[in-house]
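Example S7 (structure tokens).
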């Protein structure tokens, strides 16, 4: 079966959102304080979380440092820690809200690795459902897929507020695994 998550394919898909030479980086635009973007989930002290405008799957999130930084190794320890913390929190939120069967989580580092926005590092969180590689045939079974990206963003924001109020342990079932 063909895999939905194929880093070498992301170059093509991400190319739709790649900044041209004269365009500003969309992650930097989202990071600027006066921007109101309905795909933005939240901003932390060092990172932002935003829905991928061109998702591989419903609920596909990006976590990026606020500053324009290309390299994982160039993040300072606060940025790195916050990125990893958000990765855990957002995985828990999506798991709680949408009950996916699995996740693809990772970074395409550099253009050779298929990064569509190579200048601005970002972590992908892609929820997966059994059979979702055959996107059209499962569409009727997945409520989530019929939702627009901005509706999904609203539900994820709501899920995040719950975690912020009750703590991450409140939504992680003890002993649960995918
Ligand atoms: Zn940027």
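Recovered sequence:
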């Amino acid at each position: 079966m063909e895999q939905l998550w194929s880093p070498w394919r992301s170059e093509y898909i991400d190319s739709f959102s790649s900044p041209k030479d004269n365009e500003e980086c969309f992650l930097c635009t989202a990071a600027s304080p006066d921007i109101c973007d309905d795909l933005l989930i939240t901003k932390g002290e060092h990172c932002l979380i935003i829905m991928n405008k061109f998702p591989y799957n419903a609920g596909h999130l990006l976590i990026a440092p606020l500053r324009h930084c290309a390299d994982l190794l160039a993040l300072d320890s606060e940025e790195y820690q916050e990125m990893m913390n958000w990765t855990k929190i957002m995985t828990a939120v999506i798991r709680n809200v949408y009950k996916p069967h699995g996740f693809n989580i990772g970074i395409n580092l550099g253009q050779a690795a298929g990064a569509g926005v190579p200048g601005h590092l970002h972590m992908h969180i892609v929820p997966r459902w059994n059979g979702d590689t055959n996107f059209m045939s499962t569409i009727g079974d997945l409520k989530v897929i019929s939702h627009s990206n901005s509706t999904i963003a609203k539900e994820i924001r709501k899920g995040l507020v719950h975690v912020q109020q009750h703590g991450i342990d409140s939504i992680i079932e003890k002993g649960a695994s995918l």
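Notes on this example. The domain at 7-167 is CATH 3.30.428.10 (HIT family, subunit A).
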